[in-house]
Write a structure and sequence with these properties.
The complex is a heterodimer of chains A (176) and B (295). Chain A has 176 residues and is mainly alpha-helical. Chain A has eight helices and no strands. Chain A has helices at residues 17-35, 43-46, 50-61, 68-82, 88-102, 104-107, 112-138, 145-172. The longest helix of chain A has 28 residues, at 145-172. Chain B has 295 residues and is an alpha+beta fold. In chain B, 38% of the residues lie in helices and 25% in strands. Chain B is built from four helices and twelve strands. In chain B, strand 10 (237-245) and strand 11 (248-253) form a beta hairpin. The longest helix of chain B has 36 residues, at 39-74. The radius of gyration of chain B is 24 Å and the shape is globular. In chain B, 35% of the residues are buried. Classes of the chains: A mainly alpha (176), B alpha+beta (295). The interface between A and B is large, with 57 and 58 residues.
Chain lengths: 176, 295
């Protein structure tokens, strides 16, 4: 297996308890942001996949602090509250983790455009996957244009999210 | 936190990921096989999250109100001119409506029409847009304790938004008319009034189904609820026929669900005693309503 080598946890750091909770907390915040009712036309359908951004970021830099169990729990809670088919978000986040972990070494210490391109590829895989899964669950071909727009929006919002996550990470965590 | 050796932790993590992937897939299959399996869990989760969602959505709502306020200030002069004009027009309509109401009452008296169930309203705040990209739904902060029940119609002042699908103790989920699973019995108020079903397909504009082939639907025809089925009040405005996609008539809803901060749940006929309500429902479904029927 390709990603076994990368699963060894990073060397122990002197992180405070708050710092250790940061990945889970920010991912939960991202999840909350994606189910809030914002008074923007079409927002519900086009909401950027904030949770995907947080999972991508933390799986690259601190996968040990955002374990699979937490991804399952967050995805499950999102689907419960949002009224979406249960398990879909969990599955998406877990597969994201698997995918990012297997390429993790190529992303560490890279310049931002490279990380951004990686996220674009991830979104390009994740969004059609979501669309296909939901189409399968509804037994019809769902309208696909919205998925396309949502993917584009998600990729274009990523720099802002990445900046914020990186800033908090540097502020609260030793090393990075 | 339990301290594990790095090797142990690594093996645990290695095992955890595939395990949870399989677990998620199992949940998806289970949920698909039995839609009611997780309903109780859903309702209690919604009730638990409601205070938090409510708290977070409040400042967002006030921010957007503030922005609207500034916009209103800028437009105050132009709006005033427009509203004065509109008001004189509306006064004429009011007179017409009053005449029709009086006439309607007289005709109902002549027909001895059984009055349909009393209608009551519950107003609730939208606290989550929920649903994500593939489910069109909203969450509101009123539930069973406020008399909200699955099946009830939900509207803004402008028109129908959707119906309640799940009701928890203090929250409820509104399935929007644009959702794939939304089917609502309606009347098309064209040259001839015909029944149809308004179905969503996850696009902004739902479409009409199951109407007579020669109904002669035209752009601009008004769509109102028919009340067939008994849960919806009849004559609730829904939207207008906005265009055709091939043979598919698309309806532009009057109400913009994504902009609404508050929604009204229509409790139709629940307040009335059960026996006459059932009779009223039967007659309401059987008798073709007059084309200028009152509510």
């Amino acid at each position: 297996m390709a990603f076994n080598a990368f699963l060894t946890p990073a060397a122990p750091r002197a992180d405070s308890a708050a710092a250790r909770l940061l990945p889970i907390a920010t991912t939960m915040l991202a999840a909350l942001l994606s189910i809030l009712a914002l008074p923007i036309p079409g927002y519900a359908a086009l909401t950027p996949a904030f949770t995907l951004m947080a999972v991508y970021h933390w799986t690259i830099y601190r996968p040990d602090l955002l374990p699979a169990a937490s991804l399952f729990a967050i995805g499950f809670a999102v689907d419960l509250i949002a009224g979406a088919p249960l398990g879909v978000t969990s599955l998406l986040l877990l597969l994201t983790r698997a995918l990012v972990l297997s390429f993790r070494r190529s992303f560490r210490n890279r310049r931002f455009p490279f990380v951004w391109a990686g996220f674009a590829v991830l979104t390009g895989v994740a969004m059609p996957f979501l669309w296909a899964l939901n189409s399968l669950l509804d037994m019809t071909l769902l309208e696909s244009r919205t998925t396309l727009f949502r993917a584009a929006l998600t990729v274009s919002v990523f720099p802002a999210a990445s900046f914020l996550l990186g800033r908090t990470q540097r502020a609260l965590m030793a090393g990075g | 936190m339990i301290r594990l050796s790095p090797a142990r932790r690594a093996s645990l993590q290695r095992l955890g990921l595939p395990l949870f992937v399989v677990f998620s897939a199992a949940v998806i299959v289970l949920g698909k096989a039995d839609g009611t399996l997780f309903e109780a869990l859903r309702n209690s989760a919604a009730d638990t999250a409601a205070p938090m969602l409510g708290a977070v959505s409040r400042p967002i709502a006030s921010l957007s109100r503030l922005a609207d306020g500034v916009k209103d200030w800028v437009a105050v002069y132009r709006d005033n001119a427009r509203l004065t004009q509109e008001n004189s027009l509306l006064l004429q309509w009011q007179a017409a409506a009053l005449n029709l109401e009086a006439e309607n009452k007289r005709l109902r008296g002549l027909l001895r029409l059984v009055p349909s169930g009393a209608t009551s309203y519950v107003t609730a705040r939208v606290i989550a847009n929920s649903g994500g990209a593939y489910v069109r739904s909203l969450m509101i902060d009123a539930g069973r304790r406020d008399g909200v029940a699955p099946g009830q119609a939900v509207e803004t002042g402008a028109g129908l938004v959707g119906r309640i699908t799940e009701a928890g103790e203090q929250t409820a989920r509104v399935l929007l008319t644009s959702d794939l699973n939304s089917n609502i019995p309606v009347f098309i108020e064209g040259r001839r009034e015909v029944r149809a079903i308004l179905s969503g397909d996850n696009t902004e504009r739902p479409y009409l189904r199951f109407y007579p082939a020669r109904a002669g639907i035209r752009i601009g025809d008004r769509i109102v609820t028919s009340g067939v089925g008994g849960l919806f009040p009849p004559r609730l405005p829904v939207g207008v026929v906005a265009g055709f996609e091939g043979k598919l008539a698309r309806v532009e809803p009057y109400a913009d669900a994504s902009q609404a901060a508050y929604l009204r749940v229509v409790d139709y006929g629940r307040a009335a005693p059960p026996a006459p309500t059932a009779a009223a429902r039967g007659s309401a479904a059987g008798v073709a309503p007059p084309s200028v029927g009152g509510l």
